[in-house]
């Protein structure tokens, strides 16, 4: 029994250590998730900002009368390659964040499968086993206590029987002695010869010996039962203490399960965010590659309108963070303000969609920009109307970065710092 108790205690201690380590890991993962989310998201947006700056250089490259300007293949290819590389880096950052969070998610799921669920099963099995043992022990204690009560009654009865027999023997001996003396006196000594008969004619001493043997045997059984009840009470105390520890361990498990579940939910939330971030980055990469592919395939046949639509689509799709807003607006303003001729409806519609999305997002910085309605030469009904509330804003010249990149001369090649 002692070896069994030691094994049970060792198993319980091992389980307690396993649950303690299992509890700490989800608590460690949650701060890690916060750190990864902040770091990877920041790096991805940083890369997108850089990519949009390179996109702005492409917008500057096509400003003015691009279709009739001398074609600079080298600068064209270099600008597009830099933009593709920048968007590729943004996608890789988003993908790294997604994979890192997915890895932690998988770790929590595995922790739940390999440790939390088995620990819960082990605790419940231990509790059931000890509860059954405790119940059996209690039944044995009750039976032993009942037996002890019966034994005590029996010992009391036998003790009384011994007392009665001893009294009878004593009374018999005393009576015989008196009778012998009287009889001897009356018969002038002849009675001494007659009285040499058995001192215990009723064999009371034999009955007393039997009663004493029975009493001693009953007393030994009672003593053994007393030692057994003491041992059983000790076993019950140990079982109750162990069961209490196991119940406490079981009561702690919901906290462990909740911590793991919360970590899983947080992982799912972050994964969804990074999936969107990666999808957006991938979409932007696809678009800039489409531009690169289109210009490579068509050469000078890839018109400014095609460039402008592609760049404005990138502007529209990159609005996943207000940190990219300024760069996107720079590109949009460069395309529209420096178009160098009548703006095609398709381009104007894209510009209007961009401004509408900015307005819906609430990112319009009224204090930072000077909003002046202006007329843009376009067939599009929503672009260029001086009284239309959705006319395109003009950025403050002080906030325009055009002067950093261009020295415009009509019909001449524009050299852009790459």
- Tell me the helix content: over 70%
Radius of gyration: 51 Å
The secondary structure category is mainly alpha
End-to-end CA span: 83 Å
The number of distinct helices, counting runs of at least 4 residues, comes to: 8
Domain count: 2
Give helix and strand order, one letter per element, not per position. Answer: HHHHHHHH
Main beta sheet: none
Tertiary shape? rod-shaped
**DSSP strand tally:** 0
Global mean pLDDT:
80
Proportion of β residues? under 5%
List the uncertain runs.
366-416
Account of the protein in words:
This is NCU06412-like protein. The chain is an all-alpha fold and 418 residues long. The protein has 2 domains: 2-151 and 238-282; 287-405, no CATH class. The chain contains 8 helices and no strands. It has helices at residues 2-61, 73-186, 190-194, 204-298, 304-317, 325-337, 345-361, 402-405. Mean pLDDT is 80; it is low at 366-416.
List keywords for this structure.
2 domains; mainly alpha; 8 helices; 418 residues; single chain
Please render the helix and strand layout as text:
Elements: H1 2-61, H2 73-186, H3 190-194, H4 204-298, H5 304-317, H6 325-337, H7 345-361, H8 402-405
Helix pairs in contact: 1-2, 1-4, 1-5, 1-6, 2-4, 4-5, 5-6, 5-7
Protein name: NCU06412-like protein
């Amino acid at each position: 029994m002692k070896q069994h108790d030691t094994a049970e205690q060792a198993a319980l201690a091992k389980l307690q250590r396993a649950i303690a380590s299992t509890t700490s890991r989800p608590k460690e993962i949650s701060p890690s998730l916060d750190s990864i989310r902040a770091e990877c998201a920041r790096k991805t947006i940083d890369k997108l900002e850089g990519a949009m700056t390179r996109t702005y250089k492409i917008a500057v490259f096509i400003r003015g009368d691009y279709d009739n300007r001398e074609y600079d293949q080298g600068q064209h290819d270099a600008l597009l390659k830099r933009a593709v590389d920048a968007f590729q880096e943004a996608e890789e950052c988003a993908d790294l964040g997604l994979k890192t969070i997915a890895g932690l998610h998988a770790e929590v799921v595995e922790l739940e499968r390999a440790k939390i669920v088995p620990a819960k099963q082990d605790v419940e099995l231990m509790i059931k086993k000890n509860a059954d043992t405790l119940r059996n022990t209690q039944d044995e204690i009750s039976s032993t206590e009942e037996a002890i009560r019966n034994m005590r009654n029996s010992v009391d009865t036998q003790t009384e029987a011994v007392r009665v027999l001893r009294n009878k023997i004593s009374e018999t001996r005393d009576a015989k002695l008196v009778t012998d003396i009287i009889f001897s006196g009356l018969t002038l000594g002849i009675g001494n010869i007659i009285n040499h008969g058995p001192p215990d004619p009723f064999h009371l001493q034999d009955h007393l010996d039997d009663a004493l043997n029975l009493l001693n045997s009953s007393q030994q059984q009672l003593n053994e039962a007393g030692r057994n009840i003491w041992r059983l009470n000790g076993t019950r105390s140990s079982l109750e203490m162990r069961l209490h520890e196991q119940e406490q361990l079981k009561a702690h498990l919901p906290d462990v399960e909740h911590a793991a579940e919360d970590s899983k939910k947080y992982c799912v939330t972050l994964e969804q965010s990074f999936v969107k971030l990666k999808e957006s980055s991938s979409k932007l990469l696809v678009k800039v590659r489409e531009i690169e592919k289109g210009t490579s395939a068509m050469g000078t046949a890839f018109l400014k309108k095609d460039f402008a639509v592609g760049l404005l689509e990138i502007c529209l799709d990159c609005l996943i963070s207000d940190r990219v807003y300024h760069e996107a607006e720079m590109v949009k303003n460069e395309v529209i303000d420096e178009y160098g001729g009548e703006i095609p409806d398709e381009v104007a519609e894209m510009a209007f969609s961009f401004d509408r999305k900015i307005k819906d997002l609430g990112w319009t910085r009224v204090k930072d920009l000077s909003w002046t309605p202006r007329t843009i030469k376009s067939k599009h009904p929503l672009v260029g109307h001086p009284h239309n509330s959705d006319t395109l804003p003009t950025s403050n010249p002080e906030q325009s970065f055009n002067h950093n990149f261009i020295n415009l001369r009509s019909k001449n090649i524009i050299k852009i710092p790459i």
